[in-house]
């Protein structure tokens, strides 16, 4: 959905990250944005530093590079990892890597990182969301996060959100499956804008 986004690629350095953390009182930091965080060669240094300062860390990844970084995920102390995948084909493509991460975590008896499947809802994947949720359950992922599409920057004008009625029916079915599988699911709140900052800007 971000294929039409133009701009310079840049990665946060470990030194600048430390300066940012020292500039305020942070309890939580999400190491992701408009790119794949695992492409940053200093990512795990930043995670390790944040955790050493008592700052909880999270990242969202597409999962394609997780297999080669499993040991670093555990040694860094990363608290939470979300797999931002909104198509079943893409999930199936990285399934072995996600399985390997969860299997190794459980084998070692680690409690972290918590794992999440993060799904953006839009018209193009409406008929796949229940399947994605089922795969998450079969993977033993800790929770599923559903959130609305906010095409605030018109990155892709062809991508549209579902109707209010479609959303209502989807959430009813997701809740039903979550109860059956004892799967934790986070549904979006009732707000109509992506965040309060947007509303006030």
- What does the radius of gyration come to? 18 Å
Strand residues, percent: 15-25%
Q: Percentage of helical residues?
A: 40-55%
Report the average pLDDT across residues: 89
Helices and strands in order:
Elements: H1 14-22, E1 28-30, H2 43-52, E2 56-61, H3 70-76, E3 80-84, H4 88-108, E4 114-121, H5 129-139, E5 143-148, H6 164-181, E6 184-186, H7 196-200
Parallel strand pairs: 1-2, 2-3, 3-4, 4-5, 5-6
Description:
This protein is an alpha/beta fold and 201 residues long. It has a single domain, classed as pyruvate-formate lyase- activating enzyme (Alpha-Beta Horseshoe), CATH 3.80.30.10. It contains 7 helices and 6 strands. Strands 1-2-3-4-5-6 form a 6-stranded parallel sheet, covered by helices on one side. Helix 2 packs parallel to helix 3. The relative contact order is 0.12.
Keywords:
pyruvate-formate lyase- activating enzyme, 201 residues, 7 helices, alpha/beta
Concise structural overview:
This protein is α/β, with parallel strands linked by helices and 201 residues long. It has helices spanning 14-22, 43-52, 70-76, 88-108, 129-139, 164-181, 196-200, and strands at residues 28-30, 56-61, 80-84, 114-121, 143-148, 184-186.
């Amino acid at each position: 959905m971000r294929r039409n986004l133009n701009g310079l690629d840049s990665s946060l350095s470990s030194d600048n990250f430390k300066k940012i953390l020292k500039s305020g009182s942070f309890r939580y930091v999400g190491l992701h944005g408009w790119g794949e965080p695992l492409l940053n060669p200093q990512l795990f240094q930043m995670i390790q530093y944040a955790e050493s300062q008592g700052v909880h860390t999270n990242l969202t990844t597409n999962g394609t590079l997780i297999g080669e970084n499993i040991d670093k995920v555990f040694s860094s102390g990363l608290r939470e990892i979300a797999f931002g995948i909104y198509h079943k084909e893409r999930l199936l493509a990285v399934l072995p890597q996600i399985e390997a991460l969860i299997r190794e975590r459980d084998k070692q008896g680690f409690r972290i990182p918590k794992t999440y499947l993060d799904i953006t809802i839009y018209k193009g994947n409406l008929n796949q969301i229940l399947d994605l949720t089922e795969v998450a359950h079969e993977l033993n992922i800790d929770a599923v996060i559903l959130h609305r599409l906010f095409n605030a920057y018109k990155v892709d004008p062809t991508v549209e959100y579902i109707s209010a009625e479609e959303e209502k029916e989807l959430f009813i079915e997701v809740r039903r499956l979550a109860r059956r599988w004892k799967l934790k699911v986070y549904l979006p709140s009732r707000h109509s804008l992506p965040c309060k900052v947007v509303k006030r800007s």
